[in-house]
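input
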Amino acid sequence: MTGVLLLTGCVILLCTLMGRFLDRLAVPSLLIFIALGMFFGEDGLLRIPFNDYNAANVICSVSLIFIMFYGGFGTNLKAARPVVVQSVILSTLGVAGTAGLVAVFAHYALSLPWMESFLIGSVISSTDAASVFNILRSKKLALKYHTDSLLEIESGSNDPISYMLTTVAVGIMGGESVFIPLLLLQQIAIGIAGGLLLGKVAIWCLRRGMFPSEQSQTIFVFAAVILSYALPSAFGGNGYLSAYLCGIYMGSTKLPQKRNMVHFFDVVTDVAQVLIFFLLGLLVTPMELPAVLLPALAVMVFLTFAARPAAVALLMLPFRPTLGQVGVVSWAGLRGVASIVFAIMAVLEGVEMRYNLFNLVFCIVLLSISFQGTLLPRVSAKLSMIDQTADVSKTFNDYQEESDIDFIKVHVDKNHPWSGKSLKELPIPSDLLVVMVARREETIVPNGSTVLLPGDLLVLAARAFEDRENLSLQEIVIEKGHKWRGCSLRQIPTRSNALIVMIKRGNETIIPSGGTTLQTGDTLVIAQSNTTQATA
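output
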């Protein structure tokens, strides 16, 4: 266990330290995590043997639950409303059509039996939510005609259909008597009912204030995510569909402390993605990949240039899309972690095939992420589909669902320059709003004619500063014994990319100058550019 924890900690630490660097690479960052897994693996430099398909299946399947939930929870339905119908059609009929076309190709081009061909088509028929989300966010790829929202909903919701088709194929190949319409109806009906019911129960509990702290609320939602998969699965339903719908239901509802929950699951999902891609890279044996490289390349080329474009063009035709939109949606059909997880499930069921299914699908995914993922921004630009005026972040709930407002208090004494003046006389910027005046034991909702008196406490509202890619704010408290205590600002050796912009001293706010002397209890607000953090 010590060795496993040591490896896990090192990998997560390495991935975290590489985060900003990876965002600048042309290739999708998730591809690097696969490469890291292969580097640590038995054919890599560290030669760590790992071939436990059962453990990999459990870890990846659980991680996929949170990826599916967060895919729904983070989707902004208001932004996606114009393309919801297209997204649902692509995530259902599109998946089935892609699976069928790939099956026909594999049967005739690779001379595989029909059921083996259908299994391959089923496993790789869905697009990967983790890869699509990662590229759209990291590359800030805002697309015209709500195409980014379309891709997010499609990739987040099409894994359940691929999972159901894979289950059908594995059952038939295993000799089970499967009545396909009934099985699909059972999976879909129980999955939908379970996800919506658990989402509604979770929201009811959160709104009733049943939890004493924000932490307990988050833990409750964490448990609800697990149950949203487990309960429907126990009754024969599609757990992934349930988790995704539970996420959509909860994400589209106003909840207390929702932003904190989003930030929590954002971290959980990022760790899950890193863990899955690293683990799959560790699981694969690179020396075995050449045996399936040519058939994998053939399937990937057919999938990219024929099957996916044909399904997209046919199904989007009634909505009269532009040629550019069809081209981007076709190209953005990245295969990913879900396909590999479904392949592992099939391998564990003992399905016999001419090619090793895990290695075949792994190569297809690797080629898809490398080729399609790397060129997606370039293809989008070439087809004039990038919207320079839009922000892809707004297609996610966590950027728009709650307004980020901070409240500021201002004490008015008899010497204050605002004392005795009405609010309309004050030079207050338009984006700074006086929302309340506390006067002795009276609370006043002010208007422009409200006159401020000595002793008044003003509460103002303004949009909070958010850390940006190259600019952040941090605080340093000057405690007793601090090396800066008693020093003037001009004596402090701050870095060239750091600037002390404000000092909080008790109830006083000081705009500093070079002669300002720091005292015990002062809180310094430092503006920090680039990636270097100010030190004290």
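quick obs: The radius of gyration is 28 Å.
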